[in-house]
Write a structure and sequence with these properties.
This protein is mainly alpha-helical and 224 residues long. The chain contains 6 helices and 2 strands; from the N terminus they run αααααββα. The chain has one domain. Strands 1-2 form a two-stranded antiparallel ribbon.
């Protein structure tokens, strides 16, 4: 019994970590959308009023779309808002609920495999892009380390594999690679949890599950 309670508590804690990771990533993705809106409005004003377009808008939009899609994907999966055709499932759910549940879990298992495959395939790309910066190792080219954290950090960032156009806009590739890898890994875990425990939205531990919530209140019925 104690083992079952321990496993249940561990599962609730894991669900809570997954939930807040997905919500946090969604919040960062939403912030990215707001920043993108500001940048595009600045470009519109600059073109219309000053006849001087904001350089790098196209590159910023492309890079931001990668972040937005993959940062918001885990929370979409968590709350069952991922676009899919479930008309057949809805049709047979009333007549054959067990078969519908089994088919839904099979679909979630397939999605888990796809997401895990993407995470596995993109992880080496992320590590290669990150290691190209030489944040923690001596650089193969460029100025040597100075010992000043911020100077070395910006010099390392300038050495990273980059996305964009030189002289217009460039940004290190590794944040986008990390977003893709981390997002698909979280989605794989979410889909696996749906396979094991059903397709209900993933929730963390709630206060109602705390033992103190079931304690008798003062003035209540007590056994003499």
């Amino acid at each position: 019994m104690d083992t079952e309670n321990t496993l249940a508590q561990a599962a609730r804690k894991a669900a809570g970590i997954i939930k807040y990771a997905a919500i946090g990533a969604n919040a960062v993705g939403t912030l990215t959308v707001l920043i993108l809106v500001v940048v595009m409005n600045i470009d519109v004003v600059a073109r219309g009023v000053f006849h001087a377009p904001f350089l790098g808008v196209v590159e910023i939009v492309i890079f931001s779309m990668i972040l937005i899609v993959f940062l918001q994907l885990p929370d979409v999966v968590r709350v069952n808002r991922l676009t899919r055709s479930d008309g057949f499932l809805g049709l047979i759910e009333g007549a054959r609920p067990r078969f519908a549940s089994l088919l839904s879990r099979a679909i979630d298992l397939l999605a888990c495999i796809v997401m895990a495959t993407i995470a596995y395939a993109t992880f080496p790309e992320f590590t290669e892009a990150f290691e190209s910066c030489h944040y923690f190792t001596p650089p193969e080219f460029g100025p040597p380390l100075t010992g000043d954290f911020w100077v070395d950090f910006w010099q390392a960032t300038a050495r990273c594999h980059y996305f964009g156009t030189l002289g217009v806009f460039t940004v290190p590739w590794w944040p986008a690679k990390f977003a893709i890898t981390a997002s698909t890994a979280i989605c794989a875990v979410l889909f696996l949890s749906k396979v094991l425990f059903g397709s209900e939205p993933i929730e963390g531990p709630s206060m109602a599950e705390h033992p103190s919530d079931t304690a008798p209140t003062p003035g209540g019925d007590e056994t003499p």
